[in-house]
From TrEMBL:
Keyword Magnesium annotated: no
Top-rank lineage group of the source organism: Bacteria
UniProt KW ATP-binding keyword: no
Pfam families, A to Z: CN_hydrolase (PF00795)
Matches recorded under PROSITE patterns: CN_HYDROLASE
Residue span, CN hydrolase domain: 4-259
Protein name: Carbon-nitrogen hydrolase
Gene Ontology biological-process entries: putrescine biosynthetic process from arginine
Organism from which the protein derives: Pedobacter kyonggii
InterPro entries in the cross-refs: Aliph_Amidase/BUP, C-N_Hydrolase, C-N_Hydrolase_sf
């Protein structure tokens, strides 16, 4: 059996970029001390979630990848012997920006990056103002401990993205995330939204026979108008919840995943084997209405 210990870092952020990076490094150390081999940080962990407004000054938060944050994290990865999944605001060129996750291997080497493919544009989530859609396609990264697939937040709603990532050989799918509740919503709506968010990601584990790890930020932002709901979780390859974070506390948790279960579940629930790939051409259409 091949088992891997993954660390989930659910934390709140401030306006100070260096303070957030330093805090994340402390949390990575905590996860490593608990035995983590792969540590996943939440989406855009070096800042507040700035996409609640369209403000040109926020572009100053972006950086090159590789760049200062990955340089600092590579040192930590090598020192601790852990893989680090780091979601950052990438400045690719003058006027060209992406929502990007870098992957650093346990020897401190930079393995590459994944650029978020699906970009939302909703009230308080104005990401299309800041981010160019990813152009690297879906990605997997062979790390020391496992081949990992990375998707980012809004990607989590799309079974096509998770399916392609799984078909590329991902042993585990990671979702760095930033999502929350408007604080003027009622509790029933809050729970319905959270349940939908968790359910769609658990379904990716079931459909693909791959463990899913989703790491979300926590805390009040946007002058108290948004409560990021935390609720980070990890599932096995059948969608069983192995860890569930709180909605209001910072947490650093380590979960052991048995990667050999993927073979077992794919044998007994052979969804990959039974796919009718010859019938799926229409999926590339925007809508099937004859036009």
């Amino acid at each position: 059996m091949k088992k891997v210990k993954v660390g989930l870092v659910q934390m709140s952020c401030t306006k100070d970029k260096q303070e957030n990076l330093d805090k994340a490094i402390v949390k990575v150390r905590e996860a490593a001390a608990k035995g983590a081999q792969i540590v996943c940080l939440q989406e855009l962990f070096t800042s507040l979630y700035f996409c609640d407004v369209e403000d040109y000054d926020n572009f100053d938060l972006a950086e090159a990848i590789p760049g200062p944050s990955t340089d600092a994290l590579q040192v930590v990865a090598k020192e601790l012997g852990v893989v680090i999944i780091a979601s950052l605001f990438e400045k690719r060129a003058e006027g060209l920006y992406h929502n990007t996750t870098a992957v650093l291997d346990a020897d401190g080497s930079y393995l590459g990056k994944y650029r978020k493919m699906h970009i939302p544009d909703d009230p308080a989530f104005y990401e299309k103002f800041y981010f160019t859609p990813g152009d690297l396609g879906y990605k997997v990264f062979q790390t020391k401990f496992a081949k990992i697939g990375i998707l980012i937040c809004w990607d989590q709603w799309y079974p096509e993205a998770s399916r392609i990532t799984a078909l590329m050989g991902a042993d585990i799918m990671f979702y760095p995330t930033a999502i929350g509740w408007a604080t003027d919503q009622d509790e029933e709506t809050n729970q319905d939204q959270y349940n939908a968010w968790q359910t769609i990601q658990r379904s990716h584990a079931v459909a693909n026979g791959v463990p899913v790890v989703s790491v979300n930020r926590v805390g009040f932002e946007q002058d108290g108008a948004m409560k990021f709901w935390g609720g980070s979780f990890a599932t096995n390859a059948q969608g069983k919840i192995l860890y569930l974070g709180s909605h209001d506390q910072e947490e650093t948790e380590v979960v052991e995943l048995d990667l050999s279960e993927s073979d077992f579940f794919r044998k007994h629930w052979p969804f990959l084997r039974d796919r009718r790939i010859d019938s799926y051409q229409p999926i590339t259409k925007r809508y099937i209405d004859g036009d």
